[in-house]
């Protein structure tokens, strides 16, 4: 298997997930990650030498909405197209499953990245009640 292959629903441990979150500068929320992984609609990962280097998951109502969450690439592997590979694979699969709405919350500095992958900005107004990443 190509070590840079995107694999759907590979078994990822909460420790691997927490380590990648910490590596990208996010809070690990280690006590909640196992539940988050189990409750995901699906997930996509890239592993190199047993280390999680790229990840994205999808949260869904299984009908209309698929929400892209936790798109992360280890900073040592960024700018190599891995984020694009992960997101493209997720979107392709979700379109094949006929989800009419594939959505995400993005960092404005990544707007160009998401537009290149077919996303469009539909309006401002993200409201968060709770902790940041």
TrEMBL record:
Provide a GO CC annotation, any one. Answer: cytoplasm
For this UniProt entry, which segments traverse the membrane? Answer: none
Query: Which InterPro entries does this one have?
Result: Acyl_CoA_acyltransferase (IPR016181), GNAT_dom (IPR000182), NSI-like (IPR045039)
Q: Which residues form the N-acetyltransferase domain?
A: 1-133
Q: Which domain of life is it from?
A: Bacteria
The alphabetized UniProt keywords are: Acyltransferase, Transferase
Molecular function GO terms recorded: N-acetyltransferase activity
Q: What is this protein called?
A: N-acetyltransferase domain-containing protein
């Amino acid at each position: 298997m190509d070590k840079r292959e995107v694999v759907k629903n590979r078994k990822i441990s909460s420790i691997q997930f927490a380590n990648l979150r910490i590596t990208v500068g996010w809070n690990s929320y280690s006590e909640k990650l196992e539940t988050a992984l189990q409750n995901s609609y699906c997930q996509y990962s890239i592993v190199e030498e047993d280390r999680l280097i790229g990840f994205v998951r999808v949260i869904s109502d299984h009908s209309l909405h698929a929400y892209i969450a936790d798109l992360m690439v280890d900073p040592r592997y960024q700018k190599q197209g891995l984020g694009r590979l992960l997101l493209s694979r997720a979107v392709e699969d979700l379109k094949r499953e006929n989800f009419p709405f594939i959505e995400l919350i993005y960092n404005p500095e990544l707007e160009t990245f998401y537009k290149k992958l077919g996303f469009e900005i539909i309006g401002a107004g993200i409201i968060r009640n709770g902790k940041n990443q």
